[in-house]
Write a structure and sequence with these properties.
The longest helix is centred in the C-terminal third of the chain and has 21 residues. This protein has 2 domains: about 90 residues; about 170 residues, no CATH class. By secondary structure, the protein is α/β, with parallel strands linked by helices. The N terminus and C terminus are likely disordered. It contains 3 helices and 23 strands. It has a 19-stranded parallel sheet that branches. The relative contact order is 0.18. The N and C termini lie close together (about 10 Å).
């Protein structure tokens, strides 16, 4: 009986997936998330609050009494705005680059505001696409940690070390979220749902893990509410319109758009965990392997 092409091609796909799961190394710690502590691909409006790290806003920025880059090196570019900037009060500790016009009042100051026409050092469209792809890749990872709920507390745990993935839906998150993992571990918490929320939520970390290696991935959220909470870790929500009121993120915030009508802050705490995604060389290897298997199937046919 002659070989059947569909089975050959299916074998090729399975072997490619096997290569991906067994040969792909972890991305180095901290690589692949963002060089900015606060990144918004579209516009941002904020009143009060502090962004301790550097910030990049792709569209129009309306900042009222907001301090940017307070804990970042003064010589760095700590605020990049792709569109127009309207600033009333507040300050930027470091270099500011604005692609559009600048309207400043209320004593707003920047250590070094670059002159009009200075090239914007961020490709917002490219970075937004990269973060969206990263978010989707992380969301496709299987759960390998333990998930349990008791007494209105959702507990995420695991033994050993390495990267722990937890896949949840928004409705799974009750009033308290507890992560118990060993020191040196990375926690990736994938949360599904078009309307994400981190509001009125108690959070705690135990076992040795710290905020620097925890990432909450709202991979398909179009909106995200962050209200009255201290978020222990970084947030990746590249397609979400974020509404934030009263709270703080102990990590990075990477969003689609952002609106904070009252004081909300982001502490300078870069994500340093390991992201289990293939490096560019591994993707090339997989593509070449898949192509070779496909050609082999055609020759057999």
């Amino acid at each position: 009986m002659p070989p059947q092409p569909p089975r050959s091609l299916a074998l090729g796909r399975r072997l490619s997936l096997l290569l991906l799961l067994t040969a792909a190394p972890l991305a180095a710690s901290g690589q692949g998330l963002s060089n900015f502590g606060f990144f918004v691909s579209q516009g941002a409006t904020a009143t009060g609050g502090t962004i301790q790290a550097n910030a990049a806003i792709g569209g129009t920025a309306l900042l009222t009494n907001v301090t940017v880059g307070s804990s970042a090196p003064v010589g760095n570019t700590n605020l990049v705005v792709g569109g127009d900037l309207t600033a009333n009060g507040g300050s930027v500790n470091g270099v500011t680059v604005v692609g559009g016009t600048v309207s400043a009042s209320g004593g707003w100051s920047s250590t070094t505001l670059q002159p009009p026409g200075t090239p914007v050092p961020v490709n917002f469209a490219s970075e937004s696409l990269r973060l969206s792809n990263l978010s989707a890749t992380l969301a496709a990872l299987p759960t390998n940690g333990s998930i349990s709920t008791a007494n209105n507390t959702l507990s995420l745990s695991g033994t050993g070390s390495g990267v722990f993935v937890f896949n949840l839906s928004q409705s799974d998150i009750p009033g308290t979220l507890r992560i118990n993992l060993p020191a040196g571990s990375t926690a990736i918490v994938n949360v599904s749902g078009s309307a994400g929320s981190l509001s009125f939520l108690g959070m705690s970390l135990s076992g040795g893990i710290t905020e620097a290696t925890v990432l909450y991935n709202f991979h398909n959220a179009s909106t995200l509410q962050i209200n009255s909470v201290g978020v222990l870790g970084s947030i990746l929500a590249p397609g979400a319109a974020v509404q934030a009121t009263t709270g703080v993120v102990l990590g990075q915030g990477l969003f689609g758009s952002y609106n904070a009508p009252s004081a909300f802050s982001f502490n300078q705490l870069p994500f340093t965990g390991a992201l289990p995604v293939p490096e560019p060389g591994t993707w090339a290897l997989l593509a070449a392997g898949g192509l070779g298997l496909s050609v082999l199937g055609r020759r057999r046919r």
